[in-house]
Specification:
The protein has 1102 residues and is α+β, with helices and mostly antiparallel strands. It is 38% helix and 17% strand. The strands form twelve sheets. Strands 12-9-1-2-3-16 form a six-stranded mixed sheet, with helices on both faces. α1 packs antiparallel against α9, α3 crosses α7 and α19 packs across α20.
């Protein structure tokens, strides 16, 4: 362990953790880059649509349960039938295994008119067990499920109406007799259609309708003298037939998913860990959130500081929220009697009119109003009869339990009138607070008095963080601490960050301070992240267009500041806002003509956004200095009035207007600016912040009271831009380490440097010229800047150069060129090597869903919809199976495809009928058989399926022949032995070469590091959008394994930083392949060979 005083910087994204260790001086300020690196990992979501990686597994598990329960139900019914002696076991098997002459649907109609034989009865009873109709065990979930459930319920209602109108006695009679459920072939024959198709639920009926049919059949058969139709059989049959597991019980047996998952996964209170979190819909929780909203709300006036509500205004808001379920900000404005030039501080007005923005609903006490409205359908003002306990318990029950049966049992315990139950069962609240009811009830008295949340928490618990004492801190953070993070994307990112922190602390000891920056899109849904990315791409394209326009006025390449000037020029319609004069576009990039001014000086606000920037004449900017526009010329009433008019007519952004018209800044506002723009206050940053702050052991040097700091990305972006540090995401992963180093530098000392720098630049100029603060003499601009503000202050001298040197391929040589006193001449410096987390999890389906015929060797035969057909390059139907068996059909299909340009999707939008020899249309054709070549397949039942996910690649070496690769799939993990057939590109499995165990070297999982040596050279291709040579040829390289192509027998590889890749490297081209292991910090070492070839067990690798 190398123990030094240091700052740890973390830049955490969706699939990356950049980290830096900066050595501190005696005052806790960073002075040297000790180490830095990047950890890369796969995101915990589907990369295309952002869906959960667990979703396919959940769906498959759900399908297995349905199949298992249906099979179990049939077995119980078969056992019941045999116990009543209707048929013998042999007869039962014969009836179920062979096709019968009469349709079971016709038997359902016959059962209403004649006595059925026991054999016919058995067919009916088994048939009903497989098709039980629709039933939901949760009224609320049925309402919530939306469009699809709506179609199902509509179909049920239509079928009920059809039965009533046409006099059908049972569902079976309707299905057998009604033309709606028949399909007419071109030859006039009728075919019964009794299965729903996608988006068509016309066959759907309710379970109660089938239960009525079963009872009618039993009743009729007894009346007709059938001895098998005993009342006892009827009751026991219906008991089994109608059984359905309660949703809240979960699966049976020893399943880990048994019981109420919602209740078991409910987190614990921040302040009282022995208490469960309260549902958000509880009355106490909604009142708590209402008070939190009312106590934080401020009213903003043009040019005046934001102010909290007065006590009478707060009372009006609280009363309004309790009586107005759909109350808007506009209505609240009217209630509070606010003037037109005041605004709400928690709304983003942008460039919109206040009336439009304030149509937004307040959304306060939502479930209370939902409950009030629901109960009023039963009894007027019924909600007023509920006790405070009932107002909390009703939402708790409805949140934790979803099955009607469970809910009714719990609601009965509250002593509620049963007439309330039907409307209560329709409600389905969700989500929970981070506090328990107990904690909120202790805080509410202070919140009612107007205390802000943190102040109320301080009164009751001493702090608003729920932090723990230093006695329980550790040098190792536990992954158990993040179990309550429900978002899988966030949880994986935080877990990797914890691994990085633990590794750094093991090497360097406890840090003095940790600074973190969390990607703002981390917790957002995939759809929102895609929108943000699209917006960034559009902005980049717009900037490219602007660069081209600027070059018409400026011969040199445009700078970033030129783009800002150009945008502001057009936003302001070519006017200098401070003087009102027209700006000359042709002189826009002329030095000393115009400046980009921070409206509220950067030294005060640290706000570098467009809402705090204006384009003004340089002379105006120099006279304004370190002041607000009002402080600059507000004493001149005429000029200020003209300025207000100009701002109101030219500036559409509400925030920018507010900044421009601000009269003065209170100390609270000044500190608030810095807090907003320097500290990241998003929820996930605070979660990680408290995890580190409360549990990590820090070095006790006395330099920092607050040991963990969440840094806002805007300040790191500003520092990076002003220091000229480039960030090109397409150039690989190393930019995360750059960001982490800058994050670590956002220290109090650095903030003071930036503040002083900004002040000097803002305050330098007076009417007389530039004043020397030390001597009072006047200086030229050049002399002043050389002495006081030559350039943006770095964290320490040569920081930017040192950072680039440490990220270079030879940091020792580059550091020597810089002659830095903080480095010893014999200090070993290694290039940054990106650590990639290997994926050794065995997940996914054992095979693809489609089960194909195994008639043909070396391939599979499967039926596909006609819309999947297409023509190959020779004009024939691609992969069509045995066209010679029915040439008439084949030629007709081909002709239809040719008529529509070879597109099956367009060719078969209308029904296609098989042609007869006489030219008349025959039966309807929906699917045909295609043949697909296949290498590795999985036998499933009487067919085969394509393999699922490749789990790993086993590498073998045969003396005198070279390297061979054996792919292992998910299906192989449940087989008694390991596969031993190596891919050979000239042959198809099972003719691949058989490997011997003694020739095994090692196994590769995605993300494993290998060293590749090839005397012929390895060509590496530049990644898309990356900068650099289009390709590189190397003979010896460390590369990350990314996958294997069994068709070509080639490895997919990439450089550690993701900048170059290779996807066609076959084993025969390799002189040497070695496996390396990489730790979290990027330190790698060769693995001793050969490894033991690990086998699979039910619990993973053994």
């Amino acid at each position: 362990m190398k123990k030094i005083p240091y700052t740890l910087g973390l830049d955490i994204g969706i699939t990356s953790v950049g980290w830096s260790v900066l050595e501190n001086d005696l005052y806790g300020e960073p002075m040297k880059i000790e180490n830095l690196g990047v950890r890369i990992f796969s995101g915990a979501e589907h990369p295309k649509d952002g869906s959960s990686l667990a979703a396919p597994r959940r769906q498959a598990r759900s399908s297995r349960r349905v199949i298992r329960r249906r099979r179990h139900r049939k077995e119980r019914i078969k056992h019941l039938i045999l116990s009543f002696g209707l048929v013998s076991p042999e007869e039962m098997d014969r009836l179920l295994s062979s096709s019968q002459e009469k349709s079971v649907y016709e038997l359902r109609v016959d059962a209403l008119a004649r006595a059925l034989t026991p054999q016919e009865a058995v067919r009916l009873l088994i048939h009903f067990a497989q098709r039980r109709g629709y039933r939901s065990n949760s009224k609320s979930e049925e309402i919530k499920e939306g469009a699809e459930t709506g179609k199902v319920k509509q179909a049920i209602q239509e079928n009920r109406q059809r039965m009533a109108e046409k006099g059908y006695r049972t569902v079976g009679e309707m299905l057998w007799k009604d033309p709606l459920f028949k399909r007419v072939n071109p030859d006039g024959s009728l075919v019964l259609t009794v299965h729903n198709s996608p988006d068509d639920y016309k066959i759907t009926v309710e379970r109660t309708m089938l239960a009525e049919e079963i009872r009618l059949i039993f009743h009729t058969q007894r009346a007709l003298g059938s001895t098998w139709a005993a009342v006892e059989l009827e009751e026991r049959y219906l008991d089994i037939w109608g059984s359905q597991r309660n949703f809240d019980e979960g699966p049976g047996g020893n399943s880990p998913y048994g019981g109420s998952l919602i209740e078991s996964h409910l987190g614990r209170c921040t302040f009282e860990p022995d208490q469960p979190r309260a549902p958000k819909s509880c009355f106490t929780a909604e009142r708590f959130r209402l008070l939190e909203f009312a106590n934080k709300l401020k009213i903003v006036g043009h040019g005046f500081p934001a102010e909290f509500l007065q006590e009478d205004q707060r009372r009006i808001l609280l009363e309004f929220a309790m009586t107005s379920p759909n109350g808007t900000y506009a209505q609240l404005r009217k209630k509070l009697g606010l003037s037109e030039d005041t605004f709400f501080n928690n709304l983003y007005y942008g460039e919109n009119e206040a009336a439009k923005v304030e149509k937004k609903k307040l959304g306060l006490m939502p479930f209370y109003h939902t409950l009030r409205k629901a109960l009023s359908r039963i009894e007027k003002n019924a909600v007023d009869t509920l006790s405070p306990t009932q107002l909390d318990e009703i939402p708790r029950i409805l949140t934790l339990y979803k099955a009607d049966q469970s809910r009714i049992e719990k609601l009965q315990e509250l002593g509620l009138p049963e007439r309330y139950f039907p409307v209560l069962l329709e409600l389905s609240p969700s989500k929970a607070m981070h506090l328990s009811l107990s904690a909120m009830k202790k805080l509410l008295p202070y919140m009612e008095q107007g205390f802000l949340y943190d102040k109320a928490c301080a009164q009751v618990y001493g702090s608003h963080t729920g932090s723990i004492g230093s006695a329980t801190r550790s040098t190792k953070l536990s992954l158990e601490m993040i179990e309550e993070i429900s978002n899988p994307v966030v949880r994986r990112a935080v877990s990797q960050a914890i691994k990085v922190i633990n590794a750094i602390v093991r090497q360097y000891g406890p840090p003095e301070v940790v600074r973190i920056e969390l990607a703002r899109e981390l917790s957002k849904p995939k759809k929102i992240r895609d929108q943000l990315e699209k917006k960034q791409q559009n902005n980049a394209a717009w900037n490219d267009e602007i660069r081209q326009q600027i070059q018409e006025y400026k011969k040199e390449p445009p700078t970033g500041q030129d783009i800002v000037k150009f945008k502001l020029f057009h936003q302001q319609n070519g006017l200098c806002l401070y003087s009102g004069k027209n700006l000359d576009l042709s002189r826009l990039f002329e030095p000393g003509y115009v400046d980009v001014d921070h409206i509220i000086p950067y030294s005060i606000s640290f706000d570098d956004s467009y809402n705090n920037k204006v384009l003004v004449l340089t002379s105006e900017n120099r006279q304004k200095g370190n002041r607000l526009p009002f402080e600059y010329f507000g004493h001149d009433q005429d000029r200020w009035h003209r300025f207000e008019t100009l701002v109101d007519t030219q500036i559409r952004s509400f925030q920018k207007r507010n900044n421009l018209l601000c009269h003065t800044l209170s100390e609270e506002q000044r500190s608030g600016f810095k807090k907003r723009n320097l500290v990241d206050t998003q929820y996930l940053s605070t979660v990680l912040f408290h995890l580190i702050e409360d549990h990590l052991l820090f070095a006790e040097t006395g330099n920092y009271k607050r040991k963990t700091q969440a840094v806002n990305g805007s300040i790191t972006a500003h520092i990076r831009k002003r220091l000229g540090i480039e960030k090109v995401r397409a150039n690989g992963h190393l930019h995360h380490a750059k960001d982490a180093a800058i994050v670590a530098c956002v220290s109090p000392g650095m903030i003071q440097k930036i503040t002083n720098f900004s002040k000097r630049r803002e305050c330098a100029w007076t009417k007389e010229g530039y004043v020397d603060y030390e001597t009072g003499e006047l200086l030229t601009k050049e002399a002043y800047e050389e002495k006081y503000a030559p350039k943006f202050p770095p964290p320490w001298p040569k920081f930017s150069q040192e950072l680039e040197a440490r990220l270079s391929e030879d940091p020792r040589r580059e550091i020597d060129f810089l002659h830095l006193s903080t480095y010893d001449s014999d200090e070993a410096l290694s290039p940054v090597f990106v650590s990639q987390a290997p994926n050794r999890k065995i997940t996914g389906a054992a095979h693809e869903e489609t089960i194909r015929s195994a008639k043909e060797p070396g391939g599979t035969v499967s039926k596909v919809p006609l819309s999947s057909l297409k023509l190959d390059n020779s004009g024939e139907i691609a992969d069509y199976y045995r066209p010679e068996d029915d040439p008439l059909l084949y030629e007709a299909l081909k002709a239809r495809l040719l008529a529509f340009g070879g597109s099956g999707k367009h060719a078969f939008t209308e029904p296609f009928y098989k042609p007869k020899h006489n030219g008349q249309p025959g039966p309807l054709v929906k699917k045909v058989k295609l043949y697909k070549k296949a290498t590795l397949t999985v036998p499933v039942g009487h067919g085969i399926a394509a393999n699922g996910k490749m789990v790993r690649l086993d590498v073998f070496y045969v003396q005198g022949e070279g390297y061979y690769f054996v792919p292992l799939y998910t299906a192989d993990t449940v087989k008694p032995g390991l596969p031993c057939l190596a891919v050979t590109t000239s042959k198809k499995d099972p003719s691949w070469k058989k490997m011997q165990e003694e020739d095994f070297l090692f196994s590769l999982y995605s993300g494993d590091l290998v060293r590749i040596v090839s005397s012929k050279g390895i060509k590496l291709n530049l990644a898309k959008s990356a900068e650099g040579p289009a390709s590189l040829t190397v003979q010896d390289a460390l590369l990350y394994y990314g996958g294997f192509n069994i068709s070509t027998g080639a490895l997919n590889l990439a450089t550690h930083d993701g900048r170059y890749w290779q996807s066609g490297l076959g084993g025969k081209r390799l002189s040497l392949i070695e496996k390396y292991q990489v730790d979290v910090l990027g330190r790698y070492s060769r693995v001793s060979l050969p490894e033991k070839r690990m086998r699979f067990s039910l619990h993973g690798i053994s």
